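Example with several molecule types.
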Amino acid sequence: MYIGIDLGGTGIKAGLVDDNYKILHTASVPTGAQRHYSEIIKDMAMLAIRVTEEADFDIKKDVKSVGIGSPGTCDSENGILVYSNNINFENVPMREEMNKYIDLPIYIGNDANVAALGEFMVLDDKNVNHMVAITLGTGIGGGVIINKKIYDGFNGAAAEIGHFQVQMTDGEACTCGRNGCWEAYGSVTALIRETKRAIEAHPDCDMAKDVTAHDGHVSGKTAFVWAKKGDPVAQEVVDNYIHAVAEGIVSVINIFQPEVLVIGGAISKEGDYLLNPIKKHVEQFRYSRSIPQTEIRIAKLGNDAGIIGAALLGADVK
Amino acid sequence: MYIGIDLGGTGIKAGLVDDNYKILHTASVPTGAQRHYSEIIKDMAMLAIRVTEEADFDIKKDVKSVGIGSPGTCDSENGILVYSNNINFENVPMREEMNKYIDLPIYIGNDANVAALGEFMVLDDKNVNHMVAITLGTGIGGGVIINKKIYDGFNGAAAEIGHFQVQMTDGEACTCGRNGCWEAYGSVTALIRETKRAIEAHPDCDMAKDVTAHDGHVSGKTAFVWAKKGDPVAQEVVDNYIHAVAEGIVSVINIFQPEVLVIGGAISKEGDYLLNPIKKHVEQFRYSRSIPQTEIRIAKLGNDAGIIGAALLGADVK
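Resulting structure tokens for the full complex:
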């Protein structure tokens, strides 16, 4: 079995994952991101040991490797976290630090890439060579699998799929400093922004009245909930959102032509309500016809993708 | 040595290429694209034999393989041209047909991918693993090299880099049926369109007066020529064009993070006048900082990239 660690800005999660890619047990601690890296990594190692012991296994005898999914750019070959503004790490020797406490192979990878690997490993069709995973969350995360391996470019920073520009002129501001990135239209953050704008512009619609009558709180679900209840204002928000997601997916497919594209993240819980219009749009606007087409699916693992993918960094992918 | 064939809609070019990737001799014939594929492919084979004989070599003794760069989608494993709307081929067994006349290994690949391979093979730095080539021509062509090999997706159709959308709302029409593709802003066709619009909007500018005084002909060079002469209208056309190219390149780098990105096609002849503002823009807007950055270069091979790349399909890339 393997240990997967999902290092985040607020929490560290660790999971014991068996050879069938199932999580046997998990545990978590707060990150305490303001601390020195040596303390954070020590906590990660202790958590890995704890999660194994709590499941009545022996880390030395039963575990083959420990994988870490981390925000930022990783030098996976040398086990170094090159740069993360999320937890303020720069050139941190993750492998070396972990090996002070755990004498096992240590692997590290970018969290979005690692989650993509997790989704890739649980595909039913083992003949798939190339897969793209997109995560519709606070931002748009991306992970690319090429020839059954994570593709992260020459510097560990590739697959920033949320940061290709979809609106060059008059684009919404993106967190990365550009305007008009896909993330600024297809993320939950963008959906919430558009929902709020619609509520402001149409204070008499059912959605606006309900939101105002309660605490004014808007989430990524608000527009979806009210669209399903028949509010045309909410429906327009949802339609525009899905259009932006679908347009980006057409572009990603035109570039990568993977066998499978997987949609994960909070919004993916909408399931077919999201997936069906995307498929229809892609079918209409994809560049290449008369050839086999990418299959678009909702992610299977949800929040577990990070732990499972990290754990499987050490598993040989054949 | 190798033979490379560049199959186009109007002409077929063949070249004999030596082990140092130099073209020794070339020959060409019209494509006659309306004919049955068997006739076209017979002409390709005869041209390959002719180009070898004219250079005083023996195809059986001296040539290791024949490579074909073709428009459209290729099944390179099976030597089949799956689909090309350019020459109206569908599921054409190129390898099988060629082997009727030439008893050598036959390789086929998409023309843009093959040109990228040509540029990759002549890079001075042999440690480069990943490279993206973009061709600013009638459209925007793209070729992606990953781990020293052409990446063309699971269906042979990947790397359509001209067809990611850069303007989702109010985008210019693209030949592919979508609006707002990068090609609709960064191609020579787009540059000519914008030059004509500027001339119409500013009939008194130097560029407009000169174009009107002659035959009204506008090319991809017109705005560049008049910008260099100090016409502010032409300068604005050029600035906007370079901005669109540079924005697309930032997106491509955010996705692929290759060691090298090569710019080819007609516009690339502008050299540093094009390259320097692109580099400056990329430096400002790229997503990933504090890590090694992609080097952006002008293509070396120009029009020869197709023949050389096709020839090298049969060369082992180490």
